[in-house]
Amino acid sequence: MRGKGKDGHVQEVKIQHLHASMREKNKLAYLKEYRKAKEVTDTLTGDLEFLDKMDGKFDPFQVAVEEGNVEGAEPAAKRAKLN
User: Fold this and answer.
1) In a 10 Å sphere around its CB, with 0-12 CB exposed, 13-18 middle and 19+ buried, how is residue 68 labelled?
2) Is 26 helix (H, G, I), strand (E, B) or coil?
3) What are the CA-CA distances from residue 8 to residues 15, 19, 23, 46 (Å)?
4) What residues does each domain of the chain span?
């Protein structure tokens, strides 16, 4: 007996289908991850452009230090009260 009915051929085709489905899942996972990363990047870029337009030059580190969002740093208002 020759051809498609052989057990070896049937197993080979099953493995090929399994690999193809795994590749499709990986493609979809990669696409989802890529789109999420692109969305985050676009949002950050848009926010920074908006802040640059509003304030001229925006320094996120300076704002964080002034608001006291940095560990070990005191807010500017607290420093002024202490002096």
Assistant:
1) middle
2) helix
3) 11, 16, 23, 57
4) 7-82
Residue 69, phi then psi, degrees to nearest 5: -85, 5
Alpha carbon 43 to chain centroid, angstroms: 11
83, 74 in Cβ contact below 8 A? no
Given a contact cutoff of 8 angstroms between Cβ atoms, the answer to whether 62 and 68 are in contact is no
Region of residue 66 (left: phi > 0; alpha: psi -120 to 50; beta: else):
alpha
pLDDT digits (tens, 9 = 90+) for 2-22: 666 677 788 889 999 999 999
Global pTM value: 0.47
